[in-house]
Amino acid sequence: MKKILSLIAIALPFLFSSCVKDAVYEGPTTIDNVSINPEAPTSNDEVTVTATCSGLQEITSAVLTYNGTAVNMTVSGMTCTGIIPKLADKTAVTVVVTVKNSAGFETKSAEKSYKVGNPATDWTKVKINELYGAGADNEKAIELYNGTDFEVSLEGITLFKDEELTWTGIKGEAIPAHGVFAIVGAKGTTERGFSSGLSAKKSVLIQLMDPNGKEVDRFQRGEKGEGWGSQGLSNNSGSWSRIPDGSGKFMITESHSIGSLNASSGKDDPTVVQ
Q1: Distance between CA atoms of 118 and 90, rounded to whole angstroms?
Q2: CA distance to 6, 9, 13, 14, 54, per residue, from 3 (Å)
Q3: How far apart are CA 125 and CA 149, in angstroms?
Q4: What CA–CA distance (Å, rounded) separates 207 from 261?
Q5: Which of 31, 134, 159, 232 satisfies CB 3.0 to 4.6 Å to 109 for a cystine?
Q6: How would residue 8 be classed by pLDDT, with cut points 50, 70 and 90?
Q7: Alpha-carbon separation of residue 130 from 76, 189, 245, 252 (angstroms)
């Protein structure tokens, strides 16, 4: 009897422990990896940030912070996904992911950094697009067109009129992708206009130079002769517009469209050197 009681005493702890559910370990979630896609984003790209995690507790929320801006992430099991919107070229970005689990623990990832970088500008696709020489000096204009898929900075870009510098682009001035930039105002009549005049009835040469001083496009009407502007030609009360924008030849249009895309049709001007 004594032996039986001893066996029961030994067995009881095992029987009791089998009836008690093991306590689940409660601790922080581990962020194993944070990745970005694409790895080399341009200003045309949204960036997908993915955090891969591990741990015993369910992830209840996740926040992506980039350059001080917080974005809620989508949580699917142990994977968290967030989107960083398109940012300007040369923007330096610092990313941190913060996750919180069902046990109340919060975990922050190490910082991950990248820089937005556009390809080098294809200057063959940046063109003089329209010229308007009629009207008052403060209405005269030269329009540029960007035929690339990326915004083009105009800092360091120059325009020469009759072989003399008339305008230089500054920091902050840019042409949107497949868009236009208008330089309005002749003879300094506007703050960011060009310094020379622009006649609608005389010979003229307008040259567009890249930041290295290389000519990338030109508009020429008539010949230099004794000097640019010395040759009298028929008056154009409208504009000279590339049709289609950025790639076609210069045509006379009845009215100008400075600051917006050009008309779809015009008439030939035999005095323009194409």
Answers
A1: 8
A2: 5, 10, 17, 18, 50
A3: 10
A4: 21
A5: 31
A6: very low
A7: 53, 19, 9, 10
